[in-house]
Every structure is written in C-alpha cells, then in structure tokens.
Write a structure and sequence with these properties.
By secondary structure, the chain is mainly alpha-helical. The chain has two domains: 70 residues, no CATH class; 179 residues, Leucine-rich Repeat Variant.
Amino acid sequence: MNPQQQSLVNQYRGKLNLPGFPVSANSSNIYINLPNNSQHLKTIEESKDYSYSVQNLNSNQQLPGGDLLGELSRKEKEGLAMGVLPLRLVKQLRMKERVEWQERVVCMEELDSLVMQHMHSNTKAFLTHLNDIVLFTCEILDDSNIQISSKCLNILQTVIQNKSLNIRQSQPGIVKALLAKLNDTKITIKQQASALLRELIKQIRKLDFKVWFALMQSQLQPNNQAEILALVKVIYNTYKTQLVEDPASAQVLVLFISSH
C-alpha cells in the first residue's frame, strides 16, 4: 500500500468502525484485528458482498463499499415493524385516507412479495412475528380498493394453506376479517372470503364454537345471512363428532340456528 492509499484508509477508519484497521494491506485484501482476539486476523476480500479495497477510488475519494454503508444507514433509519416489514410500508398501508390508492397498491405488492419470500425461506424473524403480520394483513383487508383486498386475501390463503405455520393466536382475527368481507359489494371478494372461511373450518382440529358463533353473530347482516348460515352447515357437517361429545358446543350451535 502506498502512502496515499494508507492515508485514505485511515481517513475512513472511523466510518467503518473497525478496530485496529488497518494492520497491513495489499491490493486485494485488508487485514483487521478482531476485538479481544489478538491471535487471529480476519480478512475482508473483494467479493459480491463487500468491497473494502482501497483501489479504484474516485475523484471524491469515496471508499468502495460506501453504497453498502448508505444502504445500512437507510435501513437503520427507516426501521422495521413486525421483524421483517419496512416501517414505511406499514404506515402507508394504514393511512389509507392520506395515501393515494396507487401508492397503496405498490406497497401491497411489496408486502405480498416480502411475506412470500420470508415464508418460503422460513425466516426466524418472520415466524416469530407471523401472527402479528397476519393480523396486520387482516387490518388492511378492509381497504376499499379491490386490488388491495384481493392481495390481502391471497396472502391469507397462502398462510392458511401452509399447515406448517402456527396461526392459532391470530385465528379469531382472521375469522372476523373474513366474515366482514361477506358484506363486501364486490362479488369476487365476497366469494374468496367465503371460500377461505370454509377452508379454515375444515383445517382446524377442534373448533371453538363459542368464539366462531359469537363472531358470526357480530357480523351477521341481511345481505350476508345466506353465506353465514351456509358456513354453519359446513361447521355442523365437519364437527359432528365433536358436537356429540361436547353438549355445550352443540347447544351453542342450536341456539344460533334457532335465533335465525
């Protein structure tokens, strides 16, 4: 390393926050003292992930890797919600009165992409915050824009169909959100919500009748009564054995039917 290169490396030592940087360097590698371990040296080589070589500096003397530092700084400033979702995205989808529908649709596309990406890779942060992410999806399901509603339903469908995911905590929220969509004036949304409710009913090992019928009662309207009574029939046919073994659940079912 020539004196000019050494000077530039020292100049950026503070920005990189790397203790003992540099010990020595050549044209392709920089060797850095690891904290609390004087016996080992770590090599950062030019690679697809890092570019800390002091070669090829431009006229502004910017250190290669500056883009990476800027990206990390941007992400730190932006912050994450629910482990994996950009806080910016969450805020924009929640502020539907202030954010134009075109922007919300773009955010919804990003949300869908992130959920699919993390679900398929079983990201630890995603699994830890899964129920929060599902409830957030249920929250924005009531958006009046059909593209956003449809994307939300697609996300919920993928989650519900993935039997390896534990969504027990968010199940009441899912049911309530889907039942509310049975009042939707858009037929495709209404049909998709009804199909998801039927699928969810058949996947649950032991149905909590009190919770389900309380939610159905709270969402019951003249324009969705037929759909809800059809769901009651699905519940009865799916859980006949449980109803026989659990008189209290059977009583809840009978009371609901008799009142409508």
